Amino acid sequence: MTSTSTKPNDLQSLDTMTGGAFTAPTSGERAQRIRDWLAGNPAPEQMQEVFKELSGRDKGAARLLREKLDELKRAKGQEAIAAEWAHKAEALLAQPKLNIADALAWQRDAAKAGAPLSREPLAGFKARLAERVKGIEDLQHRAQVHREAAVLLAQRFEVLSTKSWRDAQAAEEALRADVAHWQQQAAEITADGNWNSLDAKFAPQLESSKAQLLVVSDAFHQALAQTVAAAEDAAAPLPPVPVWADELRVARGGVAEAAAPAAQKPPVPKVDPEKRAAAQAAVEAALAKLEKETAEGHGKASAGAAAALRAVLKEHGKLVEPPLEARVHAALVAAGELEGWQRWSADKVREELVAKAEALLKRPEGQALGGRKMQETLRTLREQWKQADQGGVPNHALWKRFDEACNEAHKVVEAWLEKVRADAAEHRAQRLALIEEVKAWAAEHADASDLKAHNRALHQFADRWRDAGHVGEKVFAELQPQWNEAFGAARAPFEAQQKASIERRQAMIAEAAELGAAPMLRIDAVKALQQRWQAEAQSVPLDRRQEQKLWDAFRAPIDEAFNRKSAEREKAAAAVSEHDRNVLNASKALDAANSTGDAQKIRAAVAQLEAALRGEAPAPASTATSNGPAVGATEVVAPGQAAAEFGESAEQAPAPSDAEASPVAPAESAASAPDLVAPADGADPSARTDAAEAEASPAPAAPPKPAPKPVIAVRGDDRPGNKKAEAVPAQRGGKFGDRRDSRGAPGGRPNDRAPRANDRGAPAGGGRFGDRPPRFEDRGPRLGDAAFRAQREALERAELALRKLAAQAHGEALTQVLGAWEQRDASKLPSAQELGRAVTPAVRGQWSQALAAGPTAAADDAAEALLRLEMAAEVPTPAEQLDARRALQLKLLTKRGDPAPVQTWGQDAGKVLAAAHDAASARRLQNALKALLRK
Q1: Which of 123, 170, 214, 353 shows the greatest Cβ crowding within 10 Å of its Cβ?
Q2: To the nearest whole number, what is the mean pLDDT of the chain?
Q3: Helix count (H) and strand count (E) of the chain?
Q4: Are 631 and 605 a contacting pair, CB within 8 Å?
Q5: Which residues are within 8 A (CB) of 582 and not within 5 positions of it... i.e. 6 or more apart?
Q6: Could you tell me which residues come within 8 angstroms of residue 6 by beta carbon, excluding any fewer than 6 positions away?
């Protein structure tokens, strides 16, 4: 009872403390009040209590508290880590001898441990360690430079010892000051606080340089003081410096010291012949080697051989005979000359180097060397000078010129180095600013939802760091860990999302493997899985290679399942049924008939193909032979019949789909054939002859009565996965044979009217000129893909062949009409069957009579007849006859009872044929009849 009574009070107090978060009406308001309360930085105990009560009521609002508590926990952990690494940094800084590797290792290990190096106090320790390391490196550099300065000072003493003693006396005070200054700088270096942190090799090296310099300096000053005393007192001893001693000797009136004359050799004592022979052989071998090297011009080798010969002479010189001794002295003289030539060539090389050094600053305008190129050139020239000094005696005069030219050119290098240092400082500042920018950006976008934009921004930061300019190795070693730390912190959320995405994709790969291994492939599940994959790939970008590898692993089982399904489908399609085989054979027979160009054979082949499509078995060859001629062996169709076919096809103009669904039937053509034959009592003799021939010709075997015209299978009507272009209207159920409109049917009412005829007079049922048969007829057994394509393409080619034959026949008939008019020969006029169904036998008889009677019509009547023909055919009239055509049109408007030109075009053509022939009228008649004969 106590807990039950106190809990509402606790909730009320928590609600009051959080500003009404527990009594907020909506989750959004509750989360907003929690945010407002957290902005006041409440105590962790209070946040923990509120989170405990709110976690079971509102997960969304409780998430804000959990994130804040986690942040406090992380901050507390980082404070402990920061205190630990701060203690280590203090220990490092307190050491009198700091190892640079230890300082760099502290920064690296602290970053790996997750210590906040960008916040105090670690940021301060990091900066102090960096300054300490920089001071140690600078001190090492100063020590090395100071050693080189000692060597240069010693070289100055050596150079002055080869000049006049007065020059040396003039430079003595400057040398004393330089040596004293060098000693002062050496003392400053050793007194530096970081001196103990330097490598152990630097201290003895600096002490050795100091001792050598002092020895050389003391010897120089003592010799100079002795020289000054000898110059003042002629009795004083000469200095040990050869150049100064010779100068004082000349000043005292003497001559320079020359080489002492060689002492006269004592007579050679008698020795053992064997010893003499051995000595002779040793000297001859050394002499032969020297002569060989001298003859080949090998300077260094000849000097070595000469030294070896002199060593042999020291040992066996007393046993050498005079002739051999003379050869030895000649060879040594030749070797000395070669050595002198080498000295001369070395001077030539030095002069060339001096010229190159002096020309560095005398280049033409626009061709001056840059700082780096100048530095490399100077380094190369000095190396070449050192190599030249190794082959001979130094030439101090040329060295002075060379050194002055190099020092003058080095000013360009110094200016360039200053610019490089300034650029490096600027680049360092830019990189530091970029690091701070990355840190601020990472803190701002820690919970970014657009991972693509997040990744793009990271790449942009990396490009900017890469293009931030050149800095020194030490600066780069200092900045690179900071950049890695900041960039790693900015990339951490994105990498976590990538890791989670990879796990989800691995799960989808396993799911795809299960779907692919299933015996029945579920297409809907595959599509849904692919959509999930695409959504995942769009939301979380990965490295291209890794993403492609995962995608290949995801596709592999699904592709394998589809390939397996395709193989099964192809295997099933490979087994051709008997019905498909019959259709394929009929299609091949139709193609063969198309190649003959015979319309009758083509129609017979079409009939066979239609029968095969309906599933009727093909007739055996013996039956066809006994009953009559084989299919395709009848007489060739007349040109007039082809013209009639062309006229019909021109009127109907079926689309390709109609051509597939309504192939031409031979029975229909047979039904319309009697209309194309002229009657026996016609006025034209040729027409009667045609009729007689038609009666006398044996009638072909009547084909079996075709079933109602089938609906040929078109692409998409019965194939899986396709839809029909137009749905068949559902029929109302009833008894077999019943129709909604039963007029004219056998089972209809007695007084019902017959079906209405169409415009051409044909019944409304099926037939060649009637409407299409009902679309709900039986279309025969189902076809395979290969058979379906073969029959459709064969029917299309057959229709094109029939249209081509009809067009050819139409053109020939029109040409014969114009030829008969020009020659006034009625016997050359085509028959009515050749002219087509548009020309009746009566009209052809009228044309024949007009041609046989000669030109009897008046020119005005013929001109009016031509105009009426052009109006009936709807073809253009020549420009000079337009006024006459307009007048005739107005005249026809006033005579509404007269037949129209389209009804009397046969009689009008007869009037034109009754007139005289001319080329212009023939062209106009040809254009008009070309259109009228097709109607």
Answers
A1: 353
A2: 74
A3: 33, 0
A4: yes
A5: 612, 617, 618
A6: none
